[in-house]
Amino acid sequence: MCSSNLEKSLVFTTEPELTRALAAEIRNDPDRFLQLLEKLLGRPLGGITKVACEEKERLDLVLTCFDGSEITRIGIEAKCDHVVARGQLKREKEVVDYLLLLVLDERDAEPDKGSVDGVMTWEKAIECFDQPRLTSWDLEHLPAQKRAVERLFNEVLPSLRCILPESDWSMVINRNGSGMPHIDIASREPVIIKGKGREIRGNIQVSGRDIRQSLEDVRFQCFIGIEIEQNSLEDFPNDCSSAPEPAWIIALKQLDADVLFKDGIERYPEFAFHKTSGQCRKAIPHMRELVDRYLGKQRYLIKGYKDWAFGAQSQPFPISNLKDNAKKTANIFKNWRNSIDKANYDQ
Question: The pTM is what?
Answer without folding.
Answer: 0.72
